[in-house]
Amino acid sequence: MRDPVALLLTDRPDRSAQIAAALEPAVDCRVLGMDEPWTEPAPLAGIIADVDIVRSQAKETVRKLRELAVPGDAPLVLLMRNRSARSFADAKSVGADVCLAARTAPHVVAETFLAKTHPRRELIDLTITRAIGRAGRALTTLLDAARADQSLDVDAFETGVDPILTAVADGGLVRWLDIVWSFDDATYQHCMLVAGLAAALALHVGFSASDRLHLVRSALIHDIGKAKIPLKILNKPGRLDDDEMRIMRTHAALGHALLIKATGFDAQTLDVVLHHHEMLDGSGYPDGLKGDAISDRVRLITICDIYAALIERRPYRAPMGHGEALRVLHSMGGKLDRDLLAAFEQAIVKR
Ligand SMILES: [Fe+2]
Ligand SMILES: [Fe+2]
Q: What would be the CATH architecture of the domain defined by 121-350?
């Protein structure tokens, strides 16, 4: 069974992209012009009619589309061109559930529509599941391309980043983690965990929209170099020996080389991929950087990365609880940035 879609019937196509984009975190939107037939087999979650409803062609088209949906199941949100008595009578005659002014902001149109189609809790889960799906596809595509020595598509990857922030902002970190736990692949699960933690942290410290995106992007991609680590080491069911650990540690430089070759990745993302295992006291790898040589962005991702690794299930040890994982982070003393660790702690408690 296909997922239900939102249908946006419009005679103002210049507005439709914004409304479709506002719906996108929760539901796919199909835009239909007044003269186009509806031929898609997907069921309708509901209809938004951005048309002049007093016109007979508009009324007729809306009525026909409503007949395609199960009565009562697919609400109709009508964007009204004016507030005349005739307009409201026509809106009533086609069974509009909600009438909004035509100039209503696209995100309000989307919120109104989704409030009708989904109970709040269900909507949050749907938003998170879709975000995980998009981010996961972006990440898997990148990992597969890296493994196969194919070129990396930066633009396609980018589409997976923003939904993570929306999902964590709307649904909270706890629900994000709940859903991420249900995935099997360890590298995939780990990257999604780190991305969710980074999103919660970026939201908590009040980063600008562009800084939030940068941080989550670099979190999602930080272990891309693991695509080049032999699977028998990557998926070893026990602890790595010294030789295997040496190979595993090359993933930072390998990931950096992959992104340099791909071109199109910003300097901050490259910095995170190369240096997320550096420690402030110089004990990290690959370059043994110390103190100020390690950027704040890298310090933040390092904290998210270690916390994620501690709470993950490993074949050779049980996952740690939240409190125990935080105690381990604090016990690392001068290796991690104390102020940023305090912010991280607040961010994950808050969410
Ligand atoms: Fe790593
Ligand atoms: Fe990692």
A: Orthogonal Bundle (1.10)
